[in-house]
Amino acid sequence: MQVTPARSGDVDVWDRSEMEPRIRHILERTVRLRDTGPYRPKSDAEVTAMLTGFFAAKGLEGIAITDVERMSGGASKEQFAFTLTHRETPQGERLVLRMDPLEAIAQTCRGREGEIQSIMGNHMPVAPVRWFDADGDLLGQPAVILGFVRGVTQPSEGGSGGVSGMGGRLGSLIDRLAPQYIDALATTHRFDWSRAHLRFFDAPRADSNQAAIWQVNWWSQVWWDCLVEPVPVVALAERWLRENAPLCDRPMLVHGDLRMGNFMFEEPSGTFTAVLDWELAHIGDFHEDIAWTMQKLFGAWGDDGVFLVSGLLPRDDFIAQYQAASGNRIDPVRLHYYEVLNAYKCAVMDLGQAMRASIASNNHQEVVLTWLGSAGAVFLSHIVQLIRKG
Amino acid sequence: MLPNIDLRIANMIKALEQVVLPALPRDQRLARDQAMLVAGHLRMMGEQWKSALRYEQVALDDLQGLARHLLPDAPALLADDLKAALSMAQACDRVSVTAIERANIDLGHAVDAVILGGKDHAPLPPESIDALLNYALRHARRERSWFKANRLDPDQHDLPDLETMLAEAD
Q1: Is it the case that residue A39 has pLDDT exceeding 90?
Q2: DSSP conformation letters of A22-66
Q3: Share of chain A above pLDDT 90, in %
Q4: Are A228 and A189 in contact (CB under 8 A)?
Q5: pLDDT class of A81 with cuts at 50, 70, 90
Q6: Neighbouring-strand partners of residue A301
Q7: Which H helix or E strand runs over A263?
Q8: How far is the C-alpha of A374 from the C-alpha of A354, rounded, in Å?
Q9: C-alpha–C-alpha distance, residues A329 and B116, integer Å
Q10: Which of A255, A333, B26, B168 is deepest in the core (most CB within 10 A)?
């Protein structure tokens, strides 16, 4: 493995303290609270009581919580739809509560999710953020409360996929969905975060390897904090990622999980109604988003046997259309690096965090986490292929 | 042993699919999803349980082979730990899944320490990296085959069935 030579603005690639402060807070909180489990899925009555207390603390009067309905989807947050009625909204409003169980496949921050989703609502369709409780001070556990958005993530007819939107088929809607998908990626990366006064985010230095090392330190800390069974190629990948960390000339907003299953659209028009799941958003290298969506597990095979990125476009078409829409040039070396990083992240989530949450019984759907964990070796195989290629 | 494990697993799947799931309201999607996944897990376990001991033995043998490859070039202090973990693994009770799992974990920690090169991050020789990548590909293929029935693997059609995979390891 060739080691990338250090530049003047670079950080020490082995300095594990090089991490975005809010991420460090979340990871340390996870470890601190781990032993307070096991987590028990919330009942409708418990959710009603939590929400009533929350809205009272927010100063609402004449509160009624009705039609509480547990939602499926995702492998991370416990989600409920409900209707809120209070003195100023007697007609009621349908909302979604998205809250953290004690541990999930990805430990993230509802403050970051609420903040960025709220701002990005000015630039693309997203579920409107009504409230968030970053550290669970009022609700008892961190949560974000969103406006209810109608739509589907898979076509109702013939598009059913597997767990978390993976492996589905978007069928005849592909031509309508693909341009909107490209536009969502380009809009995210064009967003001027430097003027946004973000409270829950910090930005890595430009023209430095800091963006890459922050990510490596985030996910390697998750791995070592969660370790159930050592996996040699995961340790090797960490070493490779440190020794090959590339420069990021211009940090941009990265969605972190923009792929099939995380955009919602209405039928039959195919018009986007919401770009979902901003929980992994951060300021970093846009190649991370491009490499993420190109992973095989998040794509599908077309009828002609061609692999479709996010179930929408052949790889070359995807790259060409993204570059045209965003004005960003994709650097193959950085793309390759972030392909390794993303395969590593997925392995860490599936074989590290998901397994630890399951063993501790700290989630509301361990049976899903162990199912996803059983796919972790797909990413190990991918890491080997990528490191050999590089 | 009656009723045997195969029969009980088959009965549980039937109960879930033909009684529990139809009784769940259509709008209880999380409960329905989880019930279907439980049936899926049970179906996989039904295929796996008789081979679980053999699978763990093969995994430990392969990890021991990797450890022996890494040993000559490992920094002295880490080599001592690796040698000790290797001896423990060789001495473990090979008819106990629990004992083999423990040995795999202990040896894995010693291998990880060598990969990361200790406090000074000692360089990994190219031969060690080759050995690691070869091992990793075998390990990943073994695990992907073991869990092939989850149908999440985009290349599942290239994977052998469990019997063939274990026979290949012999």
Answers
A1: yes
A2: HHHHHHHHHHHHGGG----PPPHHHHHHHHHHHHHHTT--S-EEE
A3: 87
A4: no
A5: very high
A6: A307
A7: strand A263-265
A8: 10
A9: 34
A10: A255
Whole-Å CA distances, A323 to A186, A190, A285, A319, A334: 8, 12, 15, 6, 15
**Which among A239, A378, A381 has the least Cβ separation from residue B115?**
A239
Enter the pTM of the model.
0.95
Angle between helices B162-169 and B52-70 (to 10 degrees): 40
Please tell me the distance from the alpha carbon of residue A257 to that of residue B48, in angstroms, as a whole number. 33
Nearest to B139 among A238, A368, A380 (CB): A380
Q: How far is A360 from chain B (nearest CA, A)?
A: 18
DSSP state, residue A98: E
Q: How far off is chain B from A38, nearest CA to CA, in Å?
A: 18
Determine contact, residues A3/B117, Cβ cutoff 8 Å: no
- For range A270-299, the mean pLDDT: 95
Which residues lie across from A29 on neighbouring strands?
A: none
| Inter-chain residue contact B104 with A378, CB threshold 8 Å | no
Residue B169 binned pLDDT confidence (cut-offs 50, 70, 90): confident
Distance, in Å, from the CA atom of A128 to the CA atom of A95, rounded to the nearest integer, reads 10
* Subunit contact A167:B152, Cβ cutoff 8 A: yes
So what's the pLDDT on residue A58? 97
Q: Which residue of A has its CA nearest to B113?
A: A235
Q: What percent of chain B has pLDDT over 70?
A: 100
Going by pLDDT thresholds of 50, 70 and 90, the confidence category of residue A301 is: confident
- pLDDT digit string (tens) for B18-35? 999 999 999 898 999 999
The pLDDT score that the predictor gives to residue B103 is 98
> How many CB atoms are closer than 10 A to CB B81?
17
Residue from A31, A22, A40 nearest A366 by CA: A40
Beta bridge partners of A99: A78, A143
The C-alpha of B48 sits at a distance from chain A's nearest C-alpha, in angstroms, of 13
Give, for A258, the enclosing helix (H) or strand (E): none
**DSSP annotation of A299:** -
What mean pLDDT is reported for chain A?
Answer: 94
A381 to B140: CB separation less than 8 angstroms, yes or no = yes
Which residues of chain A are within 8 Å of residue B165 when distances are taken between CB atoms? none
Q: Provide the 3-class DSSP secondary structure of residue A180.
A: helix
Residue of B nearest to A240 (CA): B116
How far is A349 from A255, CA to CA, in rounded Å? 17
Per the DSSP assignment, residues forming a β-bridge with B15 are none
Q: With an 8 Å Cβ cutoff, are A232 and B34 in contact? A: no
Whether A238 and B141 lie within 8 Å, measured CB to CB: no
Nearest to B153 among A163, A230, A378 (CB): A378
Task: Categorize the per-residue pLDDT at A158 as very low, low, confident or very high, splitting at 50, 70 and 90.
Answer: low
Taking CB atoms and an 8 Å limit, are B155 and A296 in contact across chains?
yes
Q: Which residues in chain B have their CB less than 8 angstroms from residue A80's CB?
A: none
Min CA distance, B69 vs chain A (Å)?
13
C-alpha distance from B82 to closest chain A C-alpha (Å): 13
Q: pLDDT tens digits for A353-376?
A: 999 999 999 999 999 999 999 999
Most confident of A5-9, B30-34, B96-100: B96-100
